[in-house]
Amino acid sequence: MIENEISYVIKGCIYNFYNQTGPGLLESAYEYALCYELERAGLTTDCQVGLPFVYENTKLDLGYRVDIIVSNRVIIEVKSVENLKDVHYKQLLTYLKLSNKKLGILVNFNTSDINTSIKRIVNNL
Q1: Closest-CA residue to 102 (of 79, 69, 57, 80)
Q2: Which of 4, 8, 16, 53 is 20–30 Å from 118 (CA)?
Q3: Against a cut of 0.70, is the pTM above it?
Q4: Count of H-run helices and E-run strands, the chain
């Protein structure tokens, strides 16, 4: 599957999961339950993946962690915050650049309308 096809399945899984739980849980609960839902849909997932930071050809282990990588192609950044901020978008775009991935999904589960809380971030797609 290509990134756009994967993102379609991801959005469906987010809707299914959110409609059963709603807002108010911790980010970690949303993250691991979403991984479970994605795997049930037939996608491979890696949760809490270490992301190295390479600066001037030197790998620096700074403890960056990507919430979810789906099918080794799409990054999902899970939030459970009052409002998404610009820094959340920039964080995901930086993760896409550091990992050479083209598509990321930023989702904030702490909302009354999940439709407005799923954002696609692209990196040269």
Answers
A1: 69
A2: 53
A3: yes
A4: 3, 7
Residue 57 DSSP label: T
Residue 50 has pLDDT above 90, yes or no: no
Task: Give the C-alpha distances (Å, rounded to integers) separating 74 from 37, 59, 112, 115, 121.
Answer: 15, 23, 25, 19, 10
Dihedral of CA 3/5/6/10: which sign?
A: positive
pLDDT digits (tens, 9 = 90+) for 86-99: 999 999 999 999 89
Both tokens of 42, joined, read 């037939």
CB-based contacts of 78, cutoff 8 Å, min separation 6: 27, 30, 31, 34, 67, 68, 107, 109
